[in-house]
Amino acid sequence: MTGRTQPLHSVSSLLAEVDHVLQRGLAPGATVHPTGFDALDATLTGGLRSGELVLLGGPAGNGKTTLGFQLARNAVAAGGTALVFSYEHEAHTLLERLISMEAMESFEGAGAMDSFGISTAADVHSVRRAMEAGSGGASLDELLSSLPGGREAHATLTGYGDRLHLHESSGATTTLEEVSRVVREVATCDGRPPLVLVDYLQKIPIAGTTEDERTTAAVEGLKDLALEVGAPIVAISAADKEALASGHRMRTHDLRGTSSLAYEADVVLILSDKVDVVSREHLVYDLGNVQRFRDWTVLSVEKNRHGRSHVELEFAKDFEHGRFHTRGNEVKERLIDERVFTT
Ligand SMILES: Nc1ncnc2c1ncn2[C@@H]1O[C@H](COP(=O)(O)OP(=O)(O)OP(=O)(O)O)[C@@H](O)[C@H]1O
């Protein structure tokens, strides 16, 4: 079922409604959008649910946009729809990341690795260079065909392109009301609510004297929208400056603005570089670990209304191709609260 109709129900009316929905061949529970990351889906008992607000936080440059955008891509690759509000990146920048991501996915799908076991699918830089150089009049397909995996990426994007919507949002004009209008428009056009990504929460222009007031209004507005439209909304959240400067591991209470962030959210995910948060004993006795851990990101499920919380998962970075590897595990090493490296 999507969206809220009326607030008051008797259990009898609910039973009748569920029966009616079942007889139409539909599912009466929430719509589950798998994240495409098996370890995360297992923790979230299936994935992200309609009506849920998911907060995604972490220090700058740790991959929040990359993960959020990959969640949107995975939703459409699995047959769903997604809508990305990007206050930080132009649509073309996201498109370049997407082309590289799909080139790499196609290489992996085909098992196309060179003799060193390293794939040579076009990275984001190559895609950007090709776009900036132009094609001298040749078509996009011809341009992309000159890049490893580019032709396959183009075919994949053409396949799901109608279901992935990118909104170049503005800190001046893309208000909560505008976000709400666009989400409804896309839901109507696509015939079902999309997975929504907001990158990022504190950029939504909202009246209010303090940052706490503005952030509270933003999370409450997004949570209401998620419930009304029946969409999962993933909102990236910036960290408090003090949290970043003090050299400790970032947690939910370090998200910028207010404690209401944690109350309103159904799921809170925090990204950290593994090398920053692993306990010191794993570093001092094996220096090789420092380099290995730099390649991994820890995704902490700090709040989870539908399953276990305080779960620490890890995923390998592949930022050159604008993505994380989707195969991940629970972290085996002991993690700390204080960061080892503060740079
Ligand atoms: N083409 C690329 N090749 C390699 N690394 C890249 C490339 N583009 C971006 N990166 C790196 O990928 C990382 C993740 O970028 P992303 O935009 O996802 O981070 P973020 O957490 O959203 O950052 P911010 O908080 O600054 O918006 C960054 O450290 C960035 O330097």
Task: Set down the secondary structure blueprint.
Blueprint: H1 11-23, E1 32-33, H2 38-43, E2 48-49, E3 53-57, H3 64-77, E4 82-86, H4 91-110, H5 124-133, H6 140-145, H7 150-160, E5 164-168, H8 176-190, E6 195-199, H9 211-229, E7 233-237, H10 241-245, H11 260-264, E8 267-273, H12 274-277, H13 281-284, H14 288-294, E9 296-304, E10 311-318, E11 323-330
The structure holds adenosine-5'-triphosphate (ATP).
List keywords for this structure.
343 residues, alpha/beta, nine-stranded mixed β-sheet, two-stranded antiparallel sheet, 14 helices, P-loop_NTPase
Question: What's the quick description here?
Answer:
With 343 residues, this protein is α/β, with parallel strands linked by helices. It is built from 14 helices and 11 strands. It is globular.
